[in-house]
# Entry
Amino acid sequence: MTVRTHKRSPLASAGLHAGLLLGTAIALFPPLWLLVTSFKPKNQAFSTALVQDFTVQNYDHVLVDTHFLDWFGNSLVVVLGTTVIGVFIASTTGYALSRFRFPGMRPLLWTLLVTQMFPMAVLIVPLYNTMATLGLLNQPAGLIITYLTIAVPFCAWMMKGFFDTVPVSIDESGRVDGLSPFGTFWRLILPLAKPGLAVTGFYTFVTAWAEVAYATAFMTGEPNMTLAGGLQTFVNQYGADWGSMTAAAVIIAVPAAVVFGFAQRYLVSGVTAGAVKS
# Structure
């Protein structure tokens, strides 16, 4: 039996490569232009030419003359709290939904799914009132709780799908060796869940690092802002400092790129495993 292969014509091959190059150029243009603009003097921010008068004044202004370091510290606290707590809750919830059967399990699964359907704008007012009642406005803890409401439902559903791919026989062998259900989860199952944990951690990190609406609504006063809210101070109704904004955006993008670099080898396998079995 012969296998017939389709040979792409030179014209089709040229068209395919041209499309790929065009797509790559479109994807790379915004971040490259952002980087270039951050090194331009303020009066050349809208110049279509590349950097003519190279300067780091924008970065110096952002780091020295603004509350950028305060914003960075606030964001770091919120991101670390959201990521650690979110990954722990999502992984334990996903494991429980994958391994145990209990009353209300199916409604809980639907609840985790339905909560993702509400637009963020609809939830700002009730969440704001709740945080005001609890005295959590202008507090990192308030943002952490808010971001957990976004990240945990999706991540728990995804982790359930990932744990479904882990053989139940591993749990049974742990119980035979005298481990408790949590001990089995912590010592046997969790080390096998690195791809799923990487995806969960990265999604939670991005949720807390890049979110703007809640950060702007719940945090007021420049020293209390996170990076997402602080960026808006450079461009507002009174003026626009595009040089400082692009410099700040470049600095903000570096930690996200570093986290992605560490997590990227697990992302494809983690997303695939969670999607197939959910």
